[in-house]
Task: structure prediction
Amino acid sequence: MVRGIELDWIIIKVNTIGKVVAVGLTAVLAGALLMFVHYRMNPTPDVAARRTIRLAERAQHRAENANLPKTWKGEVIQATRQLTEAKTAYSNESFEDARGLAENARARFAALAGAGAQSTVGAGQFHSIDGRVTIQQAGNSGWEMAKPRMSVFNGDFVKTGRHGSAEILFSDGTLFHIAPNSLLEIHHNPRGAANTSTVKMVVGKINVSTGRSSSIVATNSIETRIERDSRVAVDVGEDEAETVVSTFSGRAVLRNDTGQQIHLLTRQQVSTAIDGSFTGKRKIPMAPAPVTPVNNAAFDIHNDPVIQLNWSKVPGTQGVKLQVSRIKTFPSSDLDIDSPVIKGTGARLQAVHPGTYFWRLASIHSDGRISDWSSIRRFRIHSPEHRQVIRDLEPPDLEIAQIRQLGHLFIVEGKTEMGATVTINGTNTETDSRGYFRRAVEVHRIGWNDIVICSNDPAGNKISRRERVFLEEF
Result:
């Protein structure tokens, strides 16, 4: 029995050792696997830069073998130079710079390669998206969700939902703001003599802000050529029975299928029937001017529960329309107030929840004509728990993302303190309720250029950042 017990003991020990060894080997393998996954997901700066350079080289090969028009060869050359700079930075052990340059080159090569594969040409990209926005790429029957920075190409369709809106920035500097319930097609042909941003409206409303180039918005009945440095809205009814074109600033020329033309100047509007016939020109009312409270005013939700808004009414108008939202783009799904016509020159608001709010106004004529929106103002509602007892002497935070290039445009985006005012090269730039901002800066001087971003908080503190960008000759 003694031996039996000893044998049993020995057998038990051997089995236990086997289990321990098996568990140990499993743990080692699991640890190695975790280390491998961690290494892949969190590479060192030199490894991350090397991987990005390899991806850029593959994208370069696809772009160079794509069937691109001659006008896009400059883009290939510029992306190649960025990749060369990335390799030089890597050799100098500037791994973060190398990774950033390589990623910019990869994105540009990828866009070019995609354009060649579709026999289409990239026209621009989504600048901002609110709500549901979908895109049907040329040659495809399915729709997919649009994403910020996604490129658009000739033949693509863009559709916004009931509470959706989007901005598309074209390579010539034109910004298209697409309203809810809209459908349009990208028409863009850089092989032509003029690289003009062009869309065809099927239904809905689009607001166009041109830069140094003109733009074209076509419908089934008319073509509207929007001159440079202009802001124009084109509104196509659901049944296409009427199209309304409004010029808020600048000039536009409308032309129907019979060759008849009509010229619109600042604050002029015209309607067209489905057969392309024009109505007489109408004058668009001026936008009302906000008076009080001053921009960035602050209110205590307990001591100042009622906020008085005042504005100057435009003579000859019926009243104003007031909108208040916590989002600066005023999406229809996030409006705290969307008033009917207010005939007076003020309104009282009841403060309910703390936060940052934006408000704007539009004049309404007696026949229903509506002006452009006024400048946007903001106010903040805070509770005593969040009130600052010590005077704020610290400058606001200001984070700048890596600047991206799109032809002569440089996309500047970043984040600052909530409630702060941002300027880029002296131009006021919109920020959302969380402090994020984005702006396209148009550059025409060949070589190095400075972009200055400034942020001013409500306490008067200021911070500036200076970024240098290089524009090559195309």
